[in-house]
Specification:
By secondary structure, the chain is mostly beta strands. The chain contains 1 helix and 7 strands; from the N terminus they run αβββββββ. The strands form 2 sheets. A 4-stranded antiparallel β-sheet has the order 4-3-6-7, with no helix packed on it. A 3-stranded antiparallel β-sheet has the order 1-2-5, with no helix packed on it. The chain is globular and about 30 Å long.
C-alpha cells in the first residue's frame, strides 16, 4: 500500500488552524505516547504522522479531545503530526526520542 505525501496543496485545501495555542501536543519530545488537544472547543477527528520526506507513516481516527496516540514503534527523530479537527487542520513538528 502506497502512503500519501504531505504537500502544500494538501495542507491548504481546508482551513488551517492558525489561532495561537489552539493545538497542544505534549510531551514534545515524546518517548511513548503523545497527547493531542484542540483547545477551540472542538474535538480531534484525525491525527496523521509523517516523516521528514512527507511520507505518511500512520493515521489515527479519534473521537475525543484530548486524544492519545502511541509512537513507541518509531525511530528517534523529527516528524510531523497533521491534526484535523472540526475547525481545520494544523501541522506540528514532533520529536520522538531524546
Amino acid at each position: 500500500m502506497h502512503k500519501s505525501l504531505v504537500n502544500y496543496t494538501d495542507i491548504t485545501k481546508t482551513q488551517q488552524i492558525t489561532t495561537p495555542g489552539a493545538i497542544e501536543i505534549y510531551p514534545n519530545p515524546a518517548v511513548d505516547y503523545v497527547t493531542v488537544k484542540v483547545t477551540d472547543g472542538f474535538s480531534v477527528k484525525k491525527v496523521s504522522l509523517y516523516d521528514m520526506s512527507g511520507r505518511e507513516l500512520n493515521e489515527w481516527i479519534v473521537s475525543t479531545s484530548p486524544a492519545t496516540v502511541d509512537v513507541r514503534r518509531y525511530e528517534k527523530g523529527t516528524y510531523f503530526l497533521k491534526v484535523e479537527s472540526g475547525t481545520g487542520i494544523a501541522v506540528v513538528k514532533l520529536v520522538i526520542g531524546l
